[in-house]
C-alpha cells in the first residue's frame, strides 16, 4: 500500500496538538496516510511558504490547518496552494476560540478555507471531510469511511443510562 502522505495536518504551535491529534487519530482509523507538522504563520513564515508551495508536488491532496487566536495559518496556506484547505479553530484560552473561528472563517472571496467547528469536533470533522474528498477516487477509503459511519450509528444506545 502507498504510504505517501495524502493529507497534511499543520498547526501553529505544539499547544495545538491536543486538539489536532484528534484529526490524526481519525485519519489513522480510516487508513489515510498523513503527516503532522508545526508550521506557524507568524513564527515560521518561511516554513509555511515552503510547505504550501510544495504540498501538491509532494503528493498531498488535502491540507488540514489548525490555529488559534489570530489564526492566519489556514488562510495563508490556502493563498499559496489550490489544494482544499480545511481550517480548525483552536479553542483559545482568552476568547474560547471565537477569535480563532472568526479569523479562519471570514476569508475574502477568491481564497476558500472550509472552516470547521471550534476544537475537537472540528478536528475530527476536518479529518472526515478530508477522507470524503479522497474517497471520491479511492475505494478503500470509501469503504473505511462507510464502515466508520456504520460503527458510529451502532454505538448510539436506544435509551440513556445513568452515568454515576
Ligand atoms: C497560534 O497561537 C497557535 O495556533 C496557537 O493556537 C496560538 C498560541 O500559541 P502558543 O503561544 O501556545 O505557542 O499561532
From TrEMBL:
Belongs to the AIR carboxylase family. Class I subfamily. Keywords: Isomerase, Lyase, Purine biosynthesis. Substrate binds at residues 13, 16, 43. GO terms for molecular function: 5-(carboxyamino)imidazole ribonucleotide mutase activity; lyase activity. This is N5-carboxyaminoimidazole ribonucleotide mutase. It is an enzyme of class 5 (isomerase). Transmembrane segments: none annotated. Residues 5-156 form the PurE domain. Catalyzes the conversion of N5-carboxyaminoimidazole ribonucleotide (N5-CAIR) to 4-carboxy-5-aminoimidazole ribonucleotide (CAIR).
